[in-house]
Amino acid sequence: MSRDTTIVAIATPLGIGGIGVIRLSGPLALSITQQLASKSQFPPRQMVHTHLTHPQTHRRIDDGLVVYFKSPHSFTGEDCTEFHLHGNPLVLQMLVQATLDLGAQLATPGEFTKRAFINGKLDLTQAEAIADIIHAENQTAHAVALNHLHGSLFTAITQIRQNLMTVLEHLEGSIDFPDEIDPYSRPDLIQTIAKAKSHLTQIIDIQDLGKLVYSGIKALIIGRPNVGKSSLLNALIGEEKAIVSAIAGTTRDIIEVKLNLGGHIFELIDTAGIRKSRDQIESKGIRKINLHLGKAHLIIWVLDRSAPFSNEDEAIFQKIKAKKNILLLLNKSDKKVKLILPPALLKKKWPHLDIATKSYEAILPLKNWLSSHVQQTLHPHDLDLICNVRQIDCLKKTAHSLAQFLTSAQAGFEDAILALDLKEAILRLGELTGAEVTEEVLDGVFARFCVGK
Amino acid sequence: MSAIDLSLENHYEVIVVGSGHAGIEAALASARMGRKTLCLTLNIDNIGLMPCNPSIGGPAKGQIVGEIDALGGEMGRAADLTAIQTKVLNRSRGPAVQCLRTQNDKREYNHLMKKILCNQAHLEVRQAMIEALLIDDTTTVYGVVTELGKAYLAHSVVLTTGTFLKGKMHIGLNAFSGGRVGEYSAERLSDTLIKHLRLGRLKTGTPPRLDARSIDFAQMTEQPGDPEDLRFSFRTPKSDRYLNQIACHLTHTTPATHEIILSNLSRSPMYQKVIQGVGPRYCPSIEDKVVRFADKDRHQIFIEPEGRDTNDMYAQGLNTSLPEDAQEAFLKTMPGLQNVKILKPGYAVEYDFVYPDQLHPTLETKPIHHLFLAGQINGTSGYEEAAGQGLIAGINAALSSQNQPPFILTREDSYIGTMIDDLITKNIYEPYRMLTSRSEYRLVLRQDNAVFRLSQRAHALGLISDDEWTGIQSEKRHIEGLIVKWKKESTPEAAVSQFNLRQKTLLYEFIKRPEVDLSALMALGCIATEDLDYGQRALVQVKYEGYLLKQEAEIARIRHYDSKALPENLDYAQILGLKKESVEKFTRFSPKTIFEAKRISGINPADLMVLVTYLEKHGRRG
After folding, report:
1. What's the domain count of chain B?
2. Single pTM value for the model
3. Which chain B residues contact residue A424 at CB under 8 A?
4. Does the first or last residue of chain B, that is N or C, have fewer Cβ atoms within 10 Å of its Cβ?
5. How far apart are CA B130 and CA B189, in angstroms?
């Protein structure tokens, strides 16, 4: 056990709570804290209010209270920092990720307790059952991991592991029984592993809410001029005090606003309006919209209910008709209805909401819709994994070993070397599913191949 | 039993019971360390007999032979000198798993081993059947008693009884006691052991031996050896033996073979549950193969000569305990064997073994002090596995007789250490065979670097001579010198065009390219002829540097942890958090290091964690 490392973990229960606490312990605790914080002085045992920003990506994470405990006067006896942030798991994960990027490691189950114990911070007379505790933590680690992986995700990971295991069995079998088991053909080998890796990467991408965390859920607000986009935005901003940031867009046409709705961060992108125009600046803006259209998780199309469907509206429809996740926001519903939607649009059966952006109360249906939309689009698995940085870490390490495997395979390294990378990949996945590798490989070899001279 | 003769000439420092592959290495190691040693054998003419396949080495086994050799053992040298075919396996699969396998002349091997044993200083060899162990009231063994009532006394006793403990042979539904065809089994020794140790039952088998004159080799595929001088031992001088190799031959079973086997299962002791012992999955009987892999319409069979001057042919792949007439019938359905004559039928043998979790890493039993076990008695199979254990048991029996600290190999330094660690910590339920995949560190544990890993310690024990050790050191310097040179020198111009390099580069970097091998370096004039012997080993270190560093770092981490010393009079009851049973176990075995503590069965990681934690606290205060 190395105590030169700095470890990090979310200390508060998983899920969306009022506040969330992250604990950082080890020699780098103070320097990581200073790199993240807008302040540099952290007198021991004093709460310091500060902004927290990822120093590499310059992304604002949150603002909160930070306490520094100087060794040995901390829970673990080491230099320690506690971050008290908003309870949003996305925010907490973002901070954990930032500390990892700055050199911290994820704590293993019970590691804080172990360090505290080693450093004499736990009273031994009270620690009679420490062995059982440590033991239990080790045992439950796998169980916990398994509980978090369920349904289709668990099946997918198990399937990948099984595929890798099948390859490893063949590799190992053909090395230990060269007279009886033919080697795996190299092109097949590369193809099989590349496939497993891309499958894994896909899962990581789905799971990697870190990306969503940094940018929020991108919701693009579009609509022709004067349909009420700006007032819509103002209504949202004015109502919601938890604005993370409001940044002017790179062109005068686009405004980006981040806000927190029900624990989820939304990045609302207000486009100044799509208009058929030869104006150069505007077409630049339109190109930008096209770009955002590609990246948006959600498109909110604002239409004026009190005006007929125009050519400009038709142009917008043509632009987005192939997209998914579109919400029709029928504004000015307090006025006389003149809007008649064309049949092609109606056929899309896009969800729609009637609102009147002039009143704050009237915007409530939109907020509710956005919250529930998040619950629906983010699978329950994803929400589980938000709390489970460790699992994502395992998946990434597995993917890394597989990448190493492919690099070595391309470079012409032999099967015995490739088997090392593959075994490591399976070990990493095993941290999720909990299984011994060596015996399993041998069982597989003996079950699948007729060896024995 | 007649009165025990306790006269002084019957006193030894070490007694080794058995003279198979384990017994040989145990007896030689002990005698070579200067201990007065007695080797007792059931049959003095059967020293170093190869009762099963006529070959030594192969994956993992070859590495073990290299390690035995690096530790001053005899197996590698004897295999080199009696080889009738040599072959490198896994040549294209990476340096870690490349290994040598020899086909050997069984009679020659057995004669050579007898000669070496019977001429070894400090070693006496006698023919005797051991019936009991002499154990005092502190549960310490102090000698053995023969079936004729003669006692031999010693400080340490090494048992290497192979398949002879209550050995029971099966051919068809006929069963008779015996450890090998035509030999007695040791019936009563088990009864002594079972008073102190848990015993289990295992099964192994051997195929029929065929008469070469009745085989049509033209219908088979020839399997020649490699046309080069290959050696296990660094002490074997170069020779041209390789010019005179004998080929093996490959044939296969047919659907007709399978039909005959299936129709005879009613006469199989395995399938009629007459045999209770568990057989190895990696060495199934042909009956098992046909039943379990019913979709395969053929299984390959290697016909291997048992020597130069014999017609005995070993039918590798045909382990069987079917009745002799069934064996003959199915053999005749295979290409080249239509007219085959059986010299000896195949048979299965069941025998007692000691569950090896009752052993220390020195191979001394925990319940009976000064009693060491090696080979099949510990649940392993294979000549090499037996010899490796024999060596360790012999060394430790000798050290123990002088009250010297034990000699322990670990997973991190050797295959032998990995095997022993598996034996004492894992649950053994089938004959254990070494496989490269059992090692976490196989890139580091290569056959080519065994002397660098192990010989220094063997030299300290007196098992490697000063001259040999000097030679090994100079080899090492030579290899290191080459690498240093490569780190300084650049590739010649010719390499740039030939290998499509952008510019001249350091040889060290150039060598890492997959297409660069020793012959490429030679062609470019980058390696001198006198360096060729070292070139390959230096090349491996450069090419696999990244992977090697990774494994070495992991090894260093584990060694650091394992080497933590535990104070001798540590009061475990005072350590809060330890389970009561663990306190008892630690107190009983009083481990000297975390490594030893880790190997006490029933000790879990949590107990170790508490112990390490306690030590760290303790160390800081002290």
Report:
1. 3
2. 0.73
3. none
4. C
5. 7
